[in-house]
Amino acid sequence: MISLENGDIDVLINANIGALSKLQSDKVKWETRDASSIDNMKFNCNKGPASDINFRKAVQYGINKEDVNIGVYEGMATIGDIQIAPGFSGRPDAGTYKVVEYDPEKAKQLLAEAGYPDGFEVTLDASNDRYMNDEQIAQAVAGYLEKVGIKVNLNLMPKSNFFTYIKPAENKSMLLQTGWSDASGDGLSLLHDMLRTYNREAGQGTVNRGHCSNPEVDALISQAFTEFDDAKRGELVAEADKIARDDYAYIPLHFEQDTYAIKDTLNYTPRMNKYVLAWEFSYK
Q1: To the nearest 10°, the Cα dihedral for 198, 202, 207, 210?
Q2: How far is CA 81 from CA 39, 203, 224, 241, in A?
Q3: Which residue, among 91, 17, 102, 22, has the nearest Cα to 62 in the 3D structure?
Q4: pLDDT by residue (tens digit) across 7-63?
Q5: 89: which residues sit within 8 A by CB, 6+ positions away?
Q6: Is the whole-model pTM more than 0.85?
């Protein structure tokens, strides 16, 4: 930020939101763009308490995403409703699905139904240098879950270790916080990677780090790959995601906003897919 204000650099990508809000230079403008990347939490649906849907529901209801957005992102993220970003094929129309709202009392009730009326401890695996404010998000999530009786031990690590640790083949995590995006804008590609049953040899579910598996979801994804009609393919994708959401296989936290600080002598419009192409910059 200092280099930018001093004029030593022309563009700063993925600038820190807090630093941008304090930017004093009148020679720099900043642009934000709703991104396609979703910050989410994934469960290993075959391991420990996460194998119980009531536990997964309790975690959903126990996180105040609105307050996390305000406290961590300064209100500049978009609350995650589903994992398919706006503009992607297969995203259902608003109003056709119910967003899980913050309800700590319901979370406590669900924990009791899962057999944990007095709470218990879990480990949350998360990165601390990969996504914007990822460590602060994990800390905030842990704080909210403690309020409903889930003591969270944070296992924070740099991205150089994190992505090896959470690889589906390793199957170490029971609860993890991560993110994903797809530059294609295709919801089918997104779900194939994130929700399809993990099969290393077939190259399926390659980022299904939670190992949740549902044969109905797999069948819909397979059917969508052979459907040539765009509208029908989108309907199949939306149905597959609905089944996963109804099974509480993931928690959508936030869609990040990409931030760019740019010298006011330059013209540039950020892309949704985060690609930065040099020839799209021009001088005023």
Answers
A1: 0
A2: 11, 28, 22, 12
A3: 102
A4: 899 998 877 666 666 666 678 887 777 777 889 999 998 888 999 999 999 999 999
A5: 185, 186, 187, 188, 230, 233, 234, 237
A6: yes
